[in-house]
Amino acid sequence: MVRTQISLFGILFLAVFLETIIVPGLWSQLRMDLLIGMTIGVIIHLTFSQGLVFIMIASLFLQAFSGARPGFVPMMYLFSFLTIDILKRVIYLENVLTQLVLALVFNMLLVVAYVISMDMELEGLEFWPLITGSILTGLMSPLMVRIVGHLKKAYES
User: Fold this and answer.
1) pTM to 2 decimal places
2) pLDDT tens digits for range 84-118
3) Is there a contact between 45 and 38 (Cβ–Cβ < 8 Å)?
4) pLDDT digits (tens, 9 = 90+) for 135-154
5) Cβ atoms within 10 Å of 79's Cβ, excluding its own
6) How far is CA 71 from CA 44, 47, 146, in A?
7) If residue 34 lies in a helix (H) or strand (E), which one and from where to where?
8) Structural domain boundaries of the chain?
9) Which SS3 state, helix, strand or coil, does residue 103 take?
10) 124-151 core/surface letters (b: 16 or more CB in 10 A; e: else)
11) Which of 28, 94, 104, 124 is most buried, taking the most CB atoms under 10 A from its CB?
12) Three-state secondary structure call for residue 116
């Protein structure tokens, strides 16, 4: 369990590097969220307690790098984790299309919640980076799920 958590945090650090350095270097306003894909992967492949601990610590780590109000980022990721965990009893999460759509929808919900909580007003051209970021988040989520699955298999044997 500890090796899995350490490996997940290693992947999280790589994801944060991609999200904060590489992607904004290509388009300064573009933001994508790889933790949503990891959340879906954790829900599919790990137990509830392992996943909850990872999401709580990861979201606290991400809170330090965001400009959001204290506690907002952990609250939103825990909401996402619990909601997707409830949804896994209703829908089949192992389907790639389902993962793509869930990540896209949850990224849009998190962005809208962030914009509302910060009392920001978005103008016409500011929507394009948000929509593009949500689409990229959705496209990357099956890859993140697969990475979590490979970690689980590697440490299970």
Assistant:
1) 0.88
2) 999 999 999 999 999 999 999 999 998 888 888 87
3) no
4) 999 999 999 999 999 988 88
5) 14
6) 26, 24, 29
7) helix 34-45
8) 2-156
9) helix
10) eeeeebbeebbbbbbebbbebbebbeeb
11) 104
12) helix
